Amino acid sequence: MLKPTDAELEILQILWDKGPTSVREVNTTLNESRPVGYTTTLKLMQIMTDKALVHRDTSQRTHVYHASIQR
Fold first, then answer.
1. For helices 38-50 and 6-18, what crossing angle results, to 10°?
2. pLDDT tens, position by position, 45-54
3. Full DSSP string of 15-69
4. Global pTM?
5. What is the CA radius of gyration of the chain?
6. Do residues 53 and 4 make contact, with C-beta atoms less than 8 angstroms apart?
């Protein structure tokens, strides 16, 4: 398993704290501490899906992500 980068770890922390969450909600939380573009957050979460760090539920219009790994 690949070790998460600092940015990925920050997203994982949000998912661990909030549970299943949309990209928009993750991005809003990240923006509370520093400005991060929505597309940047989306791309990171897509990469994290490819790395199997998160799982994406595509059953609804808004895709919801949850952490695939434990803290």
1. 90
2. 999 999 999 9
3. HHHH-SEEHHHHHHHHTTTS---HHHHHHHHHHHHHTTSEEEE-SSSS-EEEESS
4. 0.91
5. 11
6. yes
Amino acid letter, residue 59 = S
Q: Show Cβ contacts of residue 24 under 8 Å, excluding neighbours closer than 6 positions.
A: 38, 62
C-alpha to C-alpha distance for 38 and 7, rounded to whole angstroms: 14
CA distance 27 to 63: 14
DSSP state of 71: -
- Phi first, then psi: what are they for 53, rounded to 5°? -85, -30
The amino acid at residue 71 is: R
Q: Could you report the per-residue pLDDT of 10-36, keeping only the tens digit for each?
A: 999 999 999 999 999 999 999 999 999
Amino acid identity, position 62 = T
* Cα 29 from Cα 36, distance rounded (Å): 10
